[in-house]
Structure formats: C-alpha cells, structure tokens
Design goal:
With 567 residues, this protein is mainly alpha-helical. The chain has 23 helices and five strands. It is elongated, with a radius of gyration of 30 Å. The longest helix has 28 residues. The protein is 54% helix and 3% strand. β4, α22 and β5 form a beta-alpha-beta unit.
C-alpha cells in the first residue's frame, strides 16, 4: 500500500509543480525576445562562480552570505538523500550511492544537516538584527525558514529512530545517534516504529509541500537563479539599448515599457528571481536620502504585475479588447519612484543574482518621457539641451571661452588647425569643463599638465555640444540620438581618433554608447592618461602632500567602467 500512496503523491506533487513552471514559462514568453545565448563558455563560468561559488553573496554581507552558503551547499548534498527517500518509498532499498560509499555519504549528510540547522539560526539572527535596516522581514521568509527547519528535524527524527531500532549506522551518524539517545532512548518497539513512520511521512509531506510552495514565493529563485545568472547581460553595463526610430513597426503606438509585453523575457525572469534580500535598496543613494525609490520594490512590483497581467494575457483578456493596466502609474510603480533614480548602478552591482533593476527603470522612464509625462526641472533640462546644447541653458558661444586665453592651446577649426590628424588626442572637456567655474579650473589644470608632459593634443572649444547623456538617462532617446549623431559627425569630420574625456558621463557615453551610431573612438579618462604620464616619468610631482585624502569614485567611471586605480 505504501508504494502506491507514494507513487500517487509524487505524481500529483511533481505534476502540479511542472504545471506551475509551464505557466511561468508562458508568462516569460509574453516578454520581448532578447538574444542571451551568446558566449556560452563565459555564461557557464558565471554560473560556477556566482551560483555555486556564491561569490556576490558573501561580499559585504559576510554573516548572511555564510549562512546562505551553508544552506545552499547543504541542500546540494541533502537532495541526494531526498531522492533516495522519495524513490525508496516506491522501490524499497533504492540507493543512488552504492555499497560502502553510502556509509560515507550518511556521515557527510549527518554533519551537513546539523550545519543547515546552524545556518537557520544564523538566518533568524541576521533577519532580526543585522538585516533589519533592509526591511527584509516578512511572512514568506519565516515560512521558508520554518520549512527548512522542519525538514532537518524530521530527517534527524527518521535517522534517530532508525538507530534506536537497530537499523541505522551509529558510527557513521554521530548527530543522529545523539538524537536517538535524547529522544528515543527507552521507547518501546511499537513507539519506535510509530515514531519512525511519523517522521518519515512528515518529512515527505514537507518536501512535496515545499516544492509546490516555492513557485508562489520569493524563494522561486531556487529554480530560477541558475538560468538568471546564466542569461545575465554580458554587454557593457554602460550602454543602454538604442531605439530604432527609423524602422518602427506599424503596430507600435509607444516607446519604452508600459505593459508586460514591452519588457523582455529576461526582465520578467529577473522579477521572478528576486529574493527580496534588499541589498539593492541598502546601497541605493536615493533610498538613503529618503527618496521614494526602492530598487527592490521596483522588481517586486514587476513580479506582482507580471503575475496579475500575465494571467490576463494568458486568459485572452487583451485579445478580447480588455484594457490592461500600465505599470508606470499609481497602481504599480509611481512616477516619483522612477524619477528618483540617479542611474548610479549600485543596485545592479550588489545583486547576487544579476538582476538589472536600473534597466527596467530606464525603460519605464522612456515611456513616460516620450509620452510627455515629464515635468519640473527634468523637463526644463531637456528643453535647454535641445535649444542650447547644454543642460543649463548657457549660450553656445560662451562654451569654453577660457581656451582662447591659454597660450599654445590648439583649437580645432581655428588658427589654421583644420583637423586632428597632427594630434595624438582631442581633449573633450564636457559641459562641466566648459561652463562651470570649478569644472573650468579642473579642465585648465588638465590642459596645463598635458602641455608640461609634451602631449600633442587639441580641444574642440565652442564646437563641443553635450554628449546627450542627460537626455538618454531621462528617457528622451530621440534628443539623445540627435545630439549624439551631431557630435559623432563633427568628430569624424575632424578626423578624431583618440579622445581624452574629463567628465565620467562623457567618458562612458563616447566610449560605450557612441559606437551604436558609428562613433568608434579610442577613449581614455584624464586620470588614466595622467597616471600613465607619471609612470613614464613625463610628469613629476613637485610638491609633497602628507594628508589623508578620501577619493569618491564616480559611478560612471568606477562601477560602469571599472576604472578605480588610476585616480
């Protein structure tokens, strides 16, 4: 009778689980197609390092990371025993590990189950003390910790009662032997038989129940983590995807992301992979300055939105003319949340499962901006970019006026300097170096140092325009592309090959985003070049400064482009 009951339970439980996975796959297919099958060896390497190696989990969050590492690898080992238990319920005596090697496995399993119990205690301590600031406490987490605790206790109950009955291997199961002594010593034979059966069935029900609870919880990452890390974005993190305005399908009535089908399948997979650990929010400068943005909540809301609207799609509501909700709106993600993002990329940098929170924010911003739903300072910035070529609205003729007073400084297009063929670099000083008094001081210092080192360079001076970065990050892709193509055409006409960029945003845009529109230039930040010149002995410090200095790595230089040492 037992094998029949077990067979029915396993078929029903795994059938329901596979149905839920099939439903999830159908929801993912609502999203736009995105190629993520390139560079398979690199993707496998990422899975090994970040899933099995848990590299990002331990970084900066050691206590929680170690606890998760113990649970993760604990279950990798425990799963072998779980398979033996389930299949053994149908085919008595089934073993995945044969012979004497199974005794060694029993020893390892015994120790690992204790370590998982310790990890559960660490998890409770972490959630009630260390991680409290991340607001990670919720019923879902409590349920999962309770289920894992129940699995370990019932497992020890099965092995402990078996040892008390004389069926176990006490020498290879030290922890289970302690359980046997503490809880089953002196129990009658019938009591031991009942206890063993009770714990065995209780363990089975927890395993099968846990399996089908996962798809409905934030712990769905148990089966989505590996594909999510495998399919992570391997392109340069500093480049947003362009919109092809010249080849717009007839059925497209908006740009950016407003409905579920506007997100990619990977965006939706991200949402179902989020563990709500709060590391992204814990590192968000907007959150820490009391802005309404929480990157975690953006992803969690997308998951709830996908579950709600995905069901409507699969039921055919959209095809039948039903009006589905936009995600940027009061019901889901508010406009205030989206405009609070500084695009610093700290959330993406910290996520252990490589969820791209910022990419989703940028796509929803594009929708809002290109629908005209942008007001206040951001709208004025875009107007000034369009009319004056800089975000502050200063006159184009006033840009970099100071260059005319620098002796020996070559300005392209002036004083017979037709193009950049005679120069090694063109120094792009950006709007900050062109207009802002402090930025001008920095640019002037860079020019002076380059001249001292004998570097052959020229500047564009008033011929510069904003790279368009503010427009692109605010979602005004059309304006960005207009500024970008104008700058690229100008640089190409002047035969520019190498660019020194002062501003980290300019550096990132020219280096990583201009190639999307035919602007292929070799770009170096001024800190990198100055560091090289010092190493080559072309620049020699003349004054010793014995002070402690704190240097703030710019987001677009450090996180986006991994330039940390040169500054």
């Amino acid at each position: 009778m037992k094998p029949i009951i077990m067979a029915i339970l396993i078929i029903c439980a795994f059938g329901f689980f596979l149905y839920n996975i099939y439903t999830l796959i159908k929801v993912l297919r609502i999203g736009k197609y995105e190629m993520r099958f390139d560079n398979i060896p690199e993707r496998i390497k990422k899975v090994i390092i970040y899933v099995f190696g848990q590299k990002r989990l331990v970084k900066n969050y050691t206590f929680a990371g170690v606890a998760h590492f113990m649970i993760f690898w604990g279950f990798m080992i425990i799963t072998i025993g779980t398979i033996e238990l389930l299949v053994g319920g149908i085919f008595s005596g089934f073993r995945l590990i044969p012979g004497e090697a199974h005794s060694v496995y029993e020893f390892i399993l015994d120790i690992v189950q204790l370590l998982v119990l310790i990890a559960i205690i660490m998890g409770i301590i972490n959630r009630t003390t260390i991680a409290k600031r991340r607001e990670v406490n919720g019923l879902d987490a409590v349920v999962v910790l309770g289920l894992i605790f129940g699995l370990m206790i019932t497992a020890f109950g099965v092995s402990g009662s078996a040892i008390a009955m004389g069926n176990g291997e006490p020498a290879w199961q030290p922890i289970s032997s302690v359980f046997a002594s503490l809880f089953f010593n002196g129990m009658s034979e019938n009591g031991l038989i009942f206890s063993n059966a009770f714990f065995w069935w209780f363990h089975v029900f927890i395993v099968l129940g846990f399996l089908n609870y996962l798809p409905y919880s934030k712990h769905s990452h148990v089966f989505t983590a590996i594909p999510n890390v495998f399919f992570q974005n391997l392109n340069h993190r500093g480049a947003l995807n362009p919109i092809d305005f010249e080849n717009v399908p007839d059925d497209i009535d908006h740009f950016g992301a407003s409905k579920l089908e506007d997100f990619t399948w990977k965006d939706i997979l991200d949402a179902y992979t989020c563990t709500e650990c709060g590391r992204c929010t814990d590192n968000c400068p907007a959150w820490h300055t009391d802005k309404p943005l929480s990157p975690r909540e953006i992803v969690v809301k997308l998951r709830h939105y996908a579950s709600s609207e995905g069901t409507a799609y699969l039921n055919g509501d959209a095809a039948n003319g039903a009006e589905l909700q936009d995600i940027p709106g009061p019901e889901w993600v508010t406009e205030e949340e989206l405009w609070a993002c500084t695009s610093c990329n700290a959330c993406v940098e910290q996520c252990p499962l490589f969820i791209d929170q910022m990419g989703k924010i940028m796509e929803m911003r594009r929708f809002l901006t290109l629908e005209g739903r942008i007001t206040g300072p951001a709208a004025k910035t875009l107007q000034k970019l369009q009319t004056h070529g800089n975000p502050w609205g200063f006159s184009e003729s006033d840009r970099a006026k100071w260059v005319s007073g620098v002796e020996g400084l070559n300005v392209l297009g002036e004083d017979g300097v037709e193009d950049a063929t005679e120069f090694d670099f063109v120094y792009w000083m950006g709007c900050y170096g062109g207009y802002d008094p402090r930025g001008q001081n920095i640019a002037q210092s860079v020019v002076s140092l380059l001249q001292q080192a004998g570097v052959k360079f020229a500047v564009l001076g008033p011929k510069e325009k904003c790279t368009g970065d503010p427009a692109r990050r605010l979602g005004e892709e059309a304006l960005y592309q207009m500024l970008a193509t104008e700058n690229i055409e100008n640089l190409n006409n002047l035969k520019v090959k190498k660019v020194i960029a002062n501003c980290p945003h300019c550096f990132n845009t020219i280096k990583n985003e201009y190639p999307q529109f035919g602007g292929n230039f070799e770009v170096i930040n001024h800190t990198q070049l100055l560091s090289d010149l010092i190493e080559q002995g072309k620049l020699k410090p003349t004054k010793e400064i014995n002070e402690d200095v704190v240097y703030h790595d710019p987001c677009y230089l450090g996180r986006y482009n991994r330039v940390f040492d040169a500054p």
